[in-house]
Amino acid sequence: MGKTISEKILSRASGKDVYAGDIIIADVDSAMAHDGTALLAIEAFEEMKGSGLFNPNSISLVLDHVAPSSNETFSKVHKRIREFAFNYRANFYEVGSGVCHQIMIETGQVKPGELIVGADSHTCTYGALGAFATGIGSTDMAAVFMSGKLWFKVPGTMEVRIDGSLPKMVTPKDVILKVVGEIGADGATYQAIEFKGSTVKEMSVEGRLTLCNMAVEMGAKTGIIEPDEKTIKYLEDMNVDVDPQGILKSDPDAKYTAKLQFDMSDLEPQVACPHSVDNVKPISKVEGTPINQAFLGSCTNGRIEDLRLAAKILDGRKVKRGVRMIVIPISRRIYLQALKEGLIETFIDAGCVVCNPGCGPCVGAHQGILAPGEVCVSTSNRNFKGRMGCMDAEIYLASPATVAASAIEGEITDPRRLKVDE
Amino acid sequence: MSKLIEGRAWKFGDDVNTDLIIPGKYKLSITDLDELSKHAMEGIDPEFTVKFRKGDIIVAGKNFGCGSSREQAPLVLKHVGVSAIIAKSFARIFYRNAINLGLPVIECVDAERIEHGDMLRIDLEGGLIKNLEKNEEYRFKPFPEEIWVILFSGGLVSYVKKYGKLPW
Ligand code: SF4
């Protein structure tokens, strides 16, 4: 019987011929924890009397969630993680390196065909490179530290086919918001979502990362895309060698739990409204909603293409009085690239505040916490109540283009309304 | 861990996410578990921890625990004394985390029949929930062996303490 790409990767990792529904013990190729989850993993590791890391070169610890630390308690957390990483010789990424997921990709910890776990739900992002990657908790992570292995249930796969060329100012973020709105917050629970179709084929790897990043917002175990020449080039540009053995594709007779199809050639910019990610509306339904804060960044949309698009719109314009716009490049590498391309200058000229690489306001611990009654339009991936630190604030999720246009107008704005030089 | 659980139902709706169970701002600023647990379920019912009695059972709709991978979510629920969670479905990371902490998570389509305050008796091994208030019975699929050994040991850490090694 044919296999999906996920079944193939999990077969290789478990050394068995496995299909959806099987429970397996598999070798993990690479693992990551960050300052929001590593402490509990370290504590569980110590409680289980872990004596060393199974393979230190494959364990990465990143300080990105509250970075730099905003309080003494968290400084102590950072200190513990730093010491643990040094003691056990794990890969360690200091404050300012960037968002954990991008670091995993840039440092070659993610390759097509590999099995990767992260103590973070958005680990599913790496599926865009043809890896099987999924989020786990801290105790699971401690077990991976010790043994390099973990149990998994092989997921069924839902095929999501996306066709059509995207209209101007309509981005991969709009595509994935539309899909989340249709499938719903639990529509793909326990499953892998395989994104296919001409739109995905045409899309840059950065755009594909945006798609897979939000697979978990439908409950999926991962999002995954068959790797192609673009994937290989993207990795090679960052000096990551790709093993041709890892380039896997689903068999034509593989079994899918469902097949969905979308035509995106007439797609409008999309917005996820408070307080759930699947509360998605076309922008025409929410245009004019006044905003107080705009956030461009996060593991969803903090990459160079996202910054370029927003800068193009902000160029020669100003952020509306009364609105603050926070810009956070996803990693040090992207920050430098943006500097060289002059994008950072454009942001600062427009009145934005540019913060160091990291998660920023996305998780509501520092840098841009909202006040009661305030509204933020954000390129991040979650708009739950309280997400940006205030229970009585509202978060709208949108594309980099929509966020930039909204910051200029001071209200949610269709980016197609602003004239932009090509 | 006991195979029989008895307690009162606390009823919640669909899509109870991890930010409602324990907001990120606390998770990232409080490391003391007693302190952190005071904010359990604060996003839905700020008085939850005051009214909740040790041993009570959480009953919810679909997709319980969706959102982040934060293990603090099941951890604070266990710490305040939640003896089991029954839901129509769970988000998968929350489900794994709960098992690893020895907190029984039970997927049962009949969760919606249970009302706030109903007295429940759960037979974990047999896969049976008795609603003593309504005199009804609901079945659920018993845990697969791989999961049961971890759960019944009281979680993964307890398993390792007991057997001196991981289950694999
Ligand atoms: S940017 Fe946001 S969603 Fe991404 S890892 Fe950081 S906190 Fe999580």
Structure characterization notes:
The complex is a heterodimer of chains A (422) and B (168). By secondary structure, chain A is of the alpha/beta class. Chain A has helices at 5-14, 38-47, 72-88, 100-106, 138-147, 172-183, 198-202, 205-213, 229-236, 298-301, 304-314, 332-340, 343-349, 400-409, and strands at residues 23-27, 30-34, 59-62, 91-93, 115-118, 132-135, 149-153, 157-163, 192-196, 222-224, 258-263, 270-272, 280-282, 293-296, 324-327, 353-354, 375-378, 394-397. In chain A, the strands form 5 sheets. Chain A has a 5-stranded parallel β-sheet, sandwiched between helices. In chain A, strands 16-15-14-17-18 form a 5-stranded parallel β-sheet, covered by helices on one side. In chain A, strands 10-9-8-11 form a 4-stranded parallel β-sheet. The N and C termini of chain A lie far apart (50 Å). Chain B has 168 residues and is α/β, with parallel strands linked by helices. Chain B has one domain: Aconitase, domain 4 (Alpha-Beta Barrel). Chain B has 8 helices and 7 strands. A 7-stranded mixed β-sheet of chain B has the order 4-3-2-1-5-6-7. In chain B, α5 links the parallel β2 (57-60) and β3 (84-87). Iron/sulfur cluster is lined by residues 65, 99-100, 120, 122, 298-299, 359, 362-363, 380-381 of chain A.
Keywords:
heterodimer; A: 422 residues; alpha/beta; Aconitase, domain 3; 2 domains; 5-stranded parallel β-sheet; 14 helices; 18% strand; B: alpha/beta; Aconitase, domain 4
Beta-strand percent range of chain B: 15-25%
Summarize the amount of helix of chain B as a percent range: 25-40%
CATH-wise, what's the superfamily of chain B? Answer: Aconitase, domain 4
CATH class division of chain B = Alpha Beta
Strand runs of chain B, count: 7
DSSP helical segment count of chain B: 8
Overall body shape of chain B: globular
Look up the CATH topology of chain B. Aconitase, domain 4
Could you give a short description of this structure?
Chain A has 422 residues and is of the alpha/beta class. Chain A has two domains: 5-262, Aconitase, domain 3, CATH 3.30.499; 272-417, Aconitase, domain 3 (2-Layer Sandwich). In chain A, 31% of the residues lie in helices and 18% in strands.
